[in-house]
């Protein structure tokens, strides 16, 4: 199976995300379009658009970027609870039709500012129960007509999404990505997602999770095409190995001196996947060949917790090892976002395509 490479658009209100260049127009239409066009020019398939209450709406951003590009594929992160499934299925189907089939969807189940947009607090079982129903219902609305669904969280009667999703080259509907490392999350992924996204864990941890998810898919009776796997990680690339490590250590020193809170002081630190990343630092500063764990000690969270550091050849070698395990979707990034789109598109992607 061919490998796919996407980037990341942080979609933040405040400038300077993870060391990005600080400008007043960092999230303007022109700036975001510049990034999307650079992704097209330098060989990227598209980009994940970050989500969260208090940030620009991801589907709106995806729509304007699709309108200003010709091949850029937005991976739209959304949260069940914020969206009703029938409403989202219709909105995404409309954008998919207008963009010529370029929409991808990342379902996020982590906690957010629920009260701000009218959702109720739920325990883990309820959150993932809602997510499972959301995935089931959205898929049905994209592939069936006159859908009647009676779940614990969602119900619809004779619901049909218009416009209909147009199958393209074997793609029946937008690809549904999903993350999560807890047992409840893995059961949802094994049966309902198209792609399970992993954070930047060591190879052995990813291998174990792929094996477990494949076993779960068989045990629970997956009804869809086989589950695929993706990696969301920071790739810190420089011209030489020595230069990359010197710059990476300097950047971490800046984080340490800036007084950033540890990520486990934040509510996201309670998530199983995030905690797995934070725990890696106790095993060593560098795991495998070049997985740098120290950033997580000084404010790195999510994909910024661990970095793959090195020359383009070093990082490509590491990413190929993940591919050998079965990972086929890669969501990479580093800051400054715009210049790294070009650097890594020029230096790293050709090595991976070879």
The biggest beta sheet, please?
8 strands, parallel, barrel
| Number of distinct helices | 11
Q: What class do helices, strands and sheet pairing give?
A: alpha/beta
Please give the alpha-carbon distance between the first and last residues: 14 Å
Total E-strand runs: 13
**What level of helicity do the residues show?**
25-40%
Strand content: 15-25%
Give the rounded overall mean pLDDT.
91
Poorly predicted spans: 261-269
The largest sheet has its strands arranged as: 1-2-3-4-7-8-9-13
Order of helices and strands: EHEHEHEHEEEHEHEHHEEEHEHH
Morphology? globular
Radius of gyration, CA atoms, in whole angstroms: 20 Å
Using brief descriptors, characterize the structure shown:
single chain; 354 residues; alpha/beta; eight-stranded parallel barrel; two-stranded antiparallel ribbon; 11 helices; 13 strands; 18% strand
Walk me through this protein's architecture:
- The protein has helices spanning 29-41, 58-67, 85-98, 124-143, 183-192, 203-220, 241-257, 272-280, 312-325, 337-347, 349-353; strands at residues 4-9, 46-49, 73-78, 104-107, 147-150, 155-159, 176-179, 195-198, 228-238, 286-287, 291-292, 307-311, 327-333.
- With 354 residues, it is α/β, with parallel strands linked by helices.
- Helix 5 links the parallel strand 7 (176-179) and strand 8.
- The two termini are 14 Å apart.
- The relative contact order is 0.13.
């Amino acid at each position: 199976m061919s490998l796919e490479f996407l980037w990341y658009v942080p979609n933040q209100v405040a400038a300077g995300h993870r060391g990005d260049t600080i400008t007043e127009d960092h999230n303007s239409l022109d700036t975001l379009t510049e990034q999307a066009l650079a992704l097209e020019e330098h060989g990227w398939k598209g980009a994940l658009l970050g989500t969260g209450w208090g940030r620009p709406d991801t589907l709106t951003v995806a729509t304007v970027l699709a309108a200003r590009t010709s091949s850029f594929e937005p991976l739209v992160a959304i949260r069940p609870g914020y969206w009703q499934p029938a409403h989202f299925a219709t909105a995404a189907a409309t954008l998919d039709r207008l963009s010529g089939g370029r929409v991808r969807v990342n379902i996020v189940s982590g906690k957010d500012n629920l009260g701000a947009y009218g959702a109720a607090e739920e325990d883990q079982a309820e959150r993932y129960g809602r997510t499972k129903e959301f995935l089931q219902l959205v898929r049905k609305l994209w592939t069936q007509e006159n859908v009647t669904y009676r779940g614990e969280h969602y119900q619809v009667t004779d619901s049909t999404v218009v416009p209909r999703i147009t199958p393209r080259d074997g793609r029946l509907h937008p690809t549904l990505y999903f993350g999560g490392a807890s047992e409840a999350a893995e059961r949802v992924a094994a049966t309902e997602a198209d792609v399970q996204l992993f954070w930047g864990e060591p190879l052995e941890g990813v291998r174990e999770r792929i094996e477990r998810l494949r076993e779960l898919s068989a045990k629970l009776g997956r009804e869809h095409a086989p589950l695929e796997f993706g990696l969301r990680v920071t790739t810190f690339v420089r011209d030489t190995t020595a230069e990359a490590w010197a710059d990476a250590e300097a950047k971490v020193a800046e984080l340490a001196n800036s007084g950033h809170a540890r990520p486990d002081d934040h509510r996201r630190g309670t998530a199983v996947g995030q905690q797995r990343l934070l725990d890696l630092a106790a095993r060593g500063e560098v795991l495998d060949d070049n997985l740098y764990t120290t950033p997580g000690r000084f404010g790195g969270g999510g994909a910024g917790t661990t970095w793959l550091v090195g020359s383009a050849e070093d990082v490509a070698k590491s990413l190929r090892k993940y591919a050998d395990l079965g990972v086929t979707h890669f969501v990479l990034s580093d800051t400054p976002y715009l210049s790294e789109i070009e650097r890594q598109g020029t230096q790293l992607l050709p090595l991976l395509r070879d």
